[in-house]
Amino acid sequence: MASTDLTHFGKTSTLLALLLCAATLVIMPGARATDSTDGAQCRVLAQHMLSALLKGDSKAATHAFDTDMRTALPPAKLSELWGEVQSNYGKFRAQSSARTLKVNGMDVVITPMQFAKTALDAQVACNTHGQIAGFFLRPTST
């Protein structure tokens, strides 16, 4: 997977690599990505997940996870990883407007998030059953 994008973050690359491993979909150079005007359901799921994380409610954040995501990233693990993200990148400051893409038939919502020390994109992928099938944090692309 695209873990090389994370190498300039030093010791925190391991943390982000774990989040990457939990994701079942990553936008990669060969993937077919197009802007999506639909994807409203995925946008709502992504916003709910991120809002729950910011409130410290990892159980609510994982509510819409599919089976693979629940196995790879149960609430306790998500809470631990989110704490490490804030420890490494600083307190969450703000998020910008999300954009939605269609990648290989799946909706992907990318939400730019500003932390005290850096900006990261939260990438949430949704399957055709209306479940979160992937979650990935990466350096902001914009």
Q: Termini separation (Å)?
A: 21 Å
Fraction in helix = 25-40%
**Overall radius of gyration:** 14 Å
Q: Helical element count?
A: 5
Report the structural category. alpha+beta
Total beta-strand segments: 6
Report the biggest beta sheet as strand number plus sense, adding barrel if it closes: 6 strands, antiparallel
Mean pLDDT across every amino acid position: 80
Element order, helices and strands?
HEHHHHEEEEE
Regarding quaternary structure, what we see is single chain
Low-pLDDT regions: 1-37
Shape: globular
Strand-helix topology:
Blueprint: H1 13-22, E1 33-35, H2 40-54, H3 58-61, H4 67-72, H5 75-89, E2 92-95, E3 99-103, E4 106-115, E5 119-126, E6 132-139
Antiparallel strand pairs: 1-3, 2-4, 3-4, 4-5, 5-6
Summarize the structure.
With 142 residues, the protein is an alpha+beta fold. The chain has five helices and six strands.
Task: Explain the overall architecture.
It is a single chain. By secondary structure, this protein is an alpha+beta fold. The protein has helices spanning 13-22, 40-54, 58-61, 67-72, 75-89, and strands at 33-35, 92-95, 99-103, 106-115, 119-126, 132-139. Strands 1, 2, 3, 4, 5 and 6 form a six-stranded antiparallel sheet that branches. The protein is globular, with a radius of gyration of 14 Å. It starts with 12 loop residues before the first helix and ends with a strand.
Main features:
6-stranded antiparallel beta sheet; alpha+beta; 142 residues
